[in-house]
Design goal:
single chain; 232 residues; 4 strands; mainly alpha; globular
Amino acid sequence: MAKVSKTDIAVITIYGMMLLAFWLYSRSASLWIIHINFVIAAVLFSYGIWKERETSRHLGQSVIFGVVASLTYIPLDWGLSQGVEFINYFRSDLAIMPAAPLCVVFSWMIAITSIIYLYFRLNSILAHSFVSAGIAGIVAFVGVLVLDQFASARFLWHWNSTPLAGKYTVDFPQIGSTPVFVPVSLLLTFVLSPYYFYKRQHTIVAGIRCGVFMGTMLFCGFVLFLALYRSV
């Protein structure tokens, strides 16, 4: 049986703290809680990379992957929020950010890093990439549902049922406050984790692939549901 390393514990702690930070945000509406969580996560990621030689390589790759994927996704998120108006952001913490608040971008980085690290670790234990990716995808599916309930409770973001300047009203099937295709899109995004690293692809290129695919899946899901469920 594989030993749980200090790096594993650090990553699990970081993921749990992100969920806690969003719960605290849902109670207080303070964006500083999410920023403070990012600082703590950065310290713990650094500790995990430094502390254990066996798993630090996986975490180092995961951090690069998470940062690159998140930065790649920013313009695609801008298209979803400002172009088709599918997602609305009602809070801002940095004026120069085009759409999503900086604290949300930081949270993408934490979440993607943690999930892709889970994929790496499971794959090193199970030696079956698509089983590992499937488990990582399920974690992403559940994680976005939990985060969305907390974030939408205080309107950090909101999925818009009247997109395209109110041209359509769309009765999105939902789980709680979340349109069904959002967690499904993230599930599929991480199920395809082996593809991002196909033929030992460089981590930066893999991260770009993930960011592009995540945005593409969300946009395609939006278009499909718009076609199926619009009422006006």
